[in-house]
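Re: weekly structure request thread

Next one in the queue (381 aa):
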Amino acid sequence: MKPQTKCFVLVLWILFFHQCKTPFYKSAESERISKTINTKDSFLSKLDSLRNFYHIPGLSYAVSYKDSTVVSGGLGFADLQSQRKATDSTTYRIASLTKPISSTILMKYVQQNLISLQDTLKLHIPGYEQYFSEVHDYVINNQPELSHLIEDYNFHSNGITVWHHLTHTSENKPGEEFRYNGFLFGILSRLLEVNLHKSFEVILHDEVIDKVHMNYSSASQSEASQGIIQLLATPYLYNSDQEIFQQSAYPEPSVNAAAGIVSNVLDLMKFDRALNRNILVDSMTLHQSWTQQTNNNEEKIPYGLGWFVQEFEGEILVWHYGWHPDAYSALYLKVPSKALTFILLSNGENLSAPFMSQGYESNVLVSPFAKLFIDHFATDP
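Done, posted below.
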């Protein structure tokens, strides 16, 4: 047999073997999930019951399987005064769901060797120590209620790296302890601005929003088009004493690596498909991002690189929550081995707030919204 023929036969054999062994799309699994999708009315009824129980005015949802959106829509109201209903086109401030998008951009440049995870912040941000000294003094003197976000950050240290910020391990002795801190994560936007010589708003649009055609998304509320603003859900706070919803203030309209993007569930599914298809980063980089990291003592932390990561009954769950207190909340949950994704956006805080004291940052399943999805779509009967 000629060498070329041998090579061709080998390639065919590898492809056949891969198709037989690929765990994502087993025929039995596909059949089970397809049947589950057909019972979506039961799922949506339970989802709406949870929405009402947790006093969430409006909720938009989407479920995808094998990169196809199989269930999407809205429950409740995007605006109570006008009785505008929530739909899958309703836009929201997505809060910390900004982090997986920002980290994907950063990891692209790690993949291209422009940035190393072991680089120090000082290497990339000129005058970083002076800059953070001014930030520190401003917060202490003008916003002391936020001082807990910076008081254990030793910015004079030479050892604080990109990895420490990306994994929320930059406080006290870097790498020693996971402490979720959106303020410190947000500094990564400055690192990208310095390296790419663009504003972070432009970076978000160039690298993700425009690239994957998220046409109803904006890097920030302040930069959003009128069309996107018209679709924006009004934020509400539930007054439990009076048992009424009260309109609350919109969060700060700017953006950094931690929070600020405006989007809807259908656009976020476009981002999700681009991730799954390795359009934004390659499979090795994605695997690295979706792997639980370890601290200085080689103990696993509940975070990967821009994502929460945990194991449940032999499955890896990759996820993130969003929470603008008194305004918006969100959930983005993936079961990669089953090719399933679940996204929820809301115009109240109770998609996240009630679960923060229950260990939410190490276990997504303390959220009944997440558990409903896992039980309905991802668990064998």
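Residues 3-21 form the longest helix (19 residues). Residues 85 and 238 are 18 Å apart (CA to CA).
Next request, please.
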